[in-house]
Amino acid sequence: MKLEDDIPDKLKHLKTSTGGFKVPEGFFENFSNEVWQKIQQAQVEAEPVSPSLSIRLEQWLGTWFLPKPALALASLAILLIAALFWLKNPTGSVQDQLAEVDSTSVKNYVLSNIDEFDEESILESVKEVQSPVDMLPELPKTEIQQYLDDAVNELDEELLEEVF
Amino acid sequence: MPQAETSDEQILRLISRPQTLEQGFRLLVGMYQERLYWQVRRMLLDHEDANDVLQNCLVKVYRNIDKFEGKSGLYTWLYRIACNEALSFLEKKKRQSSASLDDEVSAIGKQLKADEFFDGDAAQIRLQQALVTLPEKQRQVFNLRYFEEMGYQEMSTLLDTSVGALKASFHHAVKKIESFLEEK
């Protein structure tokens, strides 16, 4: 369909190619330059400025010293150190550790803490210890008899009277 | 239009290579700038507004040229982007203003009379005032048919609307404009 068939005469005479609008002189000749300039400007603005290595390092470290990450980091460091220490010095059984302690230290410890032990515990431990008699070397009966006779002879008579 | 299709292909091929990107894009702008400008200018009326909107539109085109799939012609794609940009501009302007339609019509008359880039007579100012009263779609169809003398088939592709609907829109637009011109 041709335009003339579509438009009433009243509007036909108003028609011009631009409808009365104009553009500044040389507008279209320079338009692509302006657009290209704007594209480049937009690209520069869109590209983030890359900070220097020292600034990036500082920023990275800074994030670790914020309260929460710092706390987490410290906890992790403690756990790691404890784990390393444990791996290097593994703890054995209690008996193994006691075996390493010398008898003098044990004696000193027991004497200084004697009040801490109750009587039952002491008696129980005494039972386990060999009696002094058991510890005597086996002697001939004649020697024992001789020893006892000498001892009796050495006793003071007055003292014996007092006793009996 | 085989020549135009070949040109579009050449432009797109140049744009696809980094070393010829600028050359290709400048060709695209040079080829379609006037058609696009007049479309936008008829919608916005003011030269500075049209210039800004079209430049922004072409920056968007540059950024998104890789998304052009070739399903429609290059001009159709450009035209739609330009129209969307212009409509967004108009909507933003309307939101900022609380003027009634009568106030708007009156303001356009004053604006065109004072515009150094408008040299139309009183009748042409009246025509622009009449166009402001039309719904956006009718105004768009009228501009394409009346000023660009675009055929309905091409317009149908461009606006993704049936030929019948376009004819009806144009007919209604003409009637409203006649009525407006007779009224005052």
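Chain A has a mean pLDDT of 76.
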